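Thread: "does anyone have the structure for this chain?"

Original post by V.I.:
We have the sequence but no experimental structure in hand. Need at least a predicted one for the grant figures.
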Amino acid sequence: MHSPVSCHYEINLHLEKSGISYSRWAYEPAGISSECHHHYGERRFGYGFPRRPLGQHWGVTWRVTWGPSWGYTWVIVLPQSGRLFHSSQGTSSLGAPPKNSPANALTSVLPPKQNSLSNGKLTNGKSLDNDSPKEAPLEEILEQVKGLVHQLRDLEEYHRGEGMQIQKALGDFYWKQLKFREQIGDLMCKEGYGETSVKMLKTLNTMGIFKNDDIWFPTYYAYNTMWNFSDASAELAKTLAEADVVRLLSLNCGHKPYINAIHSKNVYYVIKASLSILHNIARNPDVKHYFKEHKTSEVIRPFIENSDEMLKALAMLTLAYVVDEDENSTLIDETGVIKCVCEWLSKALSNPKRRYRGFTPQELTQGLDKLAVNDSNKIKIVEEGALQSFLIMLQHDDIREESMAARAIWTLSFDKNVRQKILEMTELIDMLEKMTQSPDENLSKSCIGALWVIREEADNPNRPRSAGPSKSHVFISYSWSDRVHVMEIADRLKKEGYNIWIDVEQMGGSTLQAMAEATENATVVLICMSEKYKQSPNCRTEAEYTFQLRKDYIPIMMQKRYRPDGWLGLILGAKLYIDFSGKYPFEKSVNGLLKELRGRGKGVPNGPRRGETVDLPNSHEPTLHHHFATHNASHPHQNSAGHIKTREEVGKWLHHVGLGHLSASFTPIDGRMLGQIREMRREAPEFFYQSLERRLGMSFADILLFTDALDGLTT
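Reply from O.Q.:
Generated one for you, tokens below.
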């Protein structure tokens, strides 16, 4: 999310006391109070700016804490229009504001552009605020942005006025160039804005950001510009994380003096901005490890109990993105995140402005979509009424809402109980059917993908099967965000003579039949793992179909410091992966992959041809015995029907061996996955026992009984 719309104004204040004159200026956004104090010996004069709705007069609250009398002159100007709100001079006694203070009324108006800010003073010169027309060419806008970033980068000090002015000028582009926000943010990333601004904030922190206005205002505008453009540009958000901003913002949110002074408007702003930027960054799965390293989940969790709804919402939605599978029960279940987000979504949809606490329906649904990646959350989201909200979003004429709702439904539909509830909502099914014809590619493919999973097309024996040659190529399943590196791997394999099937046009749900044919006819599948792969319903559809067909697959690691968990961790099991994350030289990783491929998919001239289908018997049904070794038939928990295939059969087996109370934890586990669990025990026993305890919630007695029963399964 971005920061609230702000109204900027200037203040030029001249105070006289015993022959001492003092001038200063200030920029402040709407509703944010300056609580800095300016010291004169043992005495001090403070001023602040109250919250006023747009269209009303912006006044100054005078708080005098010293002296019998003083003289003053002041002026307030709205710089964008040059409007003079009021100016006056006079004297006042201790404790009483000037009778003709700015809170009275607007008295005059100056012509536009007559006054501007330069080095902290009102002058007739040109302001550093960007004056680009709203319809200026993108190239011209980007050139201005580039120049400002370079100016910021070249500053040696940030508290002399220029740092504030540059950050403000950059921030103004966010509001003045709405349609170019992402391009502007991406350019700022490229030119080093992230690293420079984090350095700026760290420098100002060492000086004490609340010490005086010279430090506070550049701090404010740095946070404000980061807040907005981290919302607009995923690239900038990622760069900020890499520049150590997650640590800085986590420290802000956990700093006890800040927490104790949260009633102060400036302190409150720093915490709100920190949580907002963390939320924006957290939406990028590639940087999730930074949150874990700095224990951000633990730091922001207390805000869930905060009485401030905005801080509560920010904390909850950030947790939705960064929580790991093994933290889910404590950080999601115990805090009621799912219930709250579903309620906020309903309120946002009933609000004429289509917002709740500043969050749009698509932003709230995006959080639910990330929570739904964890299989244990799926049915909980549905039970809180999310499907009805998604239906309302699909019926609304907003492509962003429609696309996000369809994607969330696709993610939820991997749970059998959820699929049944969706099928019962005929109106929702009808809307999904209708949206498959949408001209918007993302919406269309999400609806097609959701219906594929809901109707269990992968298990449908009547679905047309490919007539192409079997085992003709290597199929690469990957996340679109990893396409650059994946294409390098594909091109390298082609040079070695391999036939590669890869979606190079992000076809997704719209060609699931083509994906199915490609998987059926693959000699081996490369599963390119990353956090984004795990979070993609399209990737999960491909991976699970590969698994159901009992296709041999080779895991490829695409992301540094990523540890597969959840459904992807279960599919990976105890398999070793080839690391293409950049940890090792590319050729070394290629050589490892070539050894693992062993020539499979090499030298076969033709791959599958789209459109050629024929009914074939379903000869690829997964069975448990495919992975299991033979055991003593006299084992007390021997399963005479050793070919456990479905999730229902796994549930019956659990009841048979006295572990029926674990059925809920095993809901997504079918026979193939149970086989992988058994293989995991042999190849990675430490991980096996940790998974049983932490991920499946087994007690010590449960583990003993489960491993004993697992040994009793026959081929």
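V.I.: this helps a lot. The first strand starts at residue 9 and ends at 17.
O.Q.: and Confidence is low (pLDDT under 50) at residues 6-129, 506-510, 605-642.
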